[in-house]
Amino acid sequence: MTKLETLQLKLTATRVRMGVIEATHGAGCGHPGGSLSAADVLTYLYFREMRIDPEQPQDPNRDRFVLSKGHCAPALYAALAERGFFPVADLPTLRHSNSYLQGHPNMNTVPGVDMSTGSLGQGVSAACGMALGAKQQGSDINVYTLLGDGEIDEGQCWEAFMFANHYKLDNLCIMIDVNGLQIDGATRDVMNSEPLDRKMDAFGFNTIVCNGNSFAELEQAFKMFDLSHGSGKPTCFLLRTIKGQGVSYMQNAVEWHGKAPNDEEYEKAMEELRAAHESLEKEIELNNG
């Protein structure tokens, strides 16, 4: 990946973060913290990794993505909108009673959403089923799913991990957003799941630890996933991220797990993100020159 391509991904991720703030502010509720930490991996997925077409959102040969941590729908919606599945202008209608963009993804109403999710722990099971179905049909479809590090408190996640290993789902990429915070506090205090790398190894995964807010490291992780095809081993990314990444006062602050910015907080967040966007635009212009 060239420097210019990396800068363009950073620019897109900044717009995704702006969409998260627009959506949660428009709703007056929602989950900005974990949405912001996941903005980079979703940007990489939708703009570089996955085989998808916004003009044909139901293409049977498309790759699939399941947002298992469904409360972080603002980030998924923002990425889908930036990719062209629906208008960016619709993001502030999040959670409004007459909006198709509800608080958790709905595959029946939102173009580009492959699975309805919300009850934590269940999305990864659906992703395993999709991956197994693709294998049984002899398809080259890849399936990606994103979980939270608080979500894996749920026992169903570990059942799904055993399933993925048993059925040798090497077309499955499970990504865990390890930002260290969940609704009740630090994950190490609520339910310590570490050492995650050793646990996922023991469950038979090709385990890759990387900085989930670095496009260079994400690129290497996805290359390793691609190389694992045919190995009979599912892949797990442990994405070390910062909750609230991109908005200074939300970073590593547990209170922003499930709280929307008020008008003043919205303006401060957007001011920071606009400044970052402008700086990236200037750097891209210099590199183009």
Based on Cα principal axes, name the global outline.
globular
Could you state the order of secondary-structure elements as H and E? HHHEHHEHEEEHHEHEH
CATH H-level name... which superfamily? Thiamin diphosphate (ThDP)-binding fold, Pyr/PP domains
What percentage of amino acids are in beta strands? 5-15%
- How many β strands by DSSP? 7
CATH class: Alpha Beta
Radius of gyration (Å): 18 Å
Organism: Subdoligranulum variabile DSM 15176
Protein name: Transketolase, thiamine diphosphate binding domain protein
Pfam families: Transketolase_N (PF00456)
Domain Transketolase N-terminal: 13-273
SSE diagram, text form:
Blueprint (H helix, E strand, L loop, with lengths): L2 H25 L4 H6 L1 H11 L14 E4 L5 H11 L39 H14 L6 E6 L6 H12 L5 E7 L2 E2 L2 E2 H4 L5 H7 L3 E6 L3 H13 L7 E6 L22 H26 L1
Parallel strand pairs: 1-2, 2-3, 3-7, 6-7
Antiparallel strand pairs: 4-5
Keywords: Thiamine pyrophosphate
Family: Belongs to the transketolase family.
Protein name: Transketolase, thiamine diphosphate binding domain protein
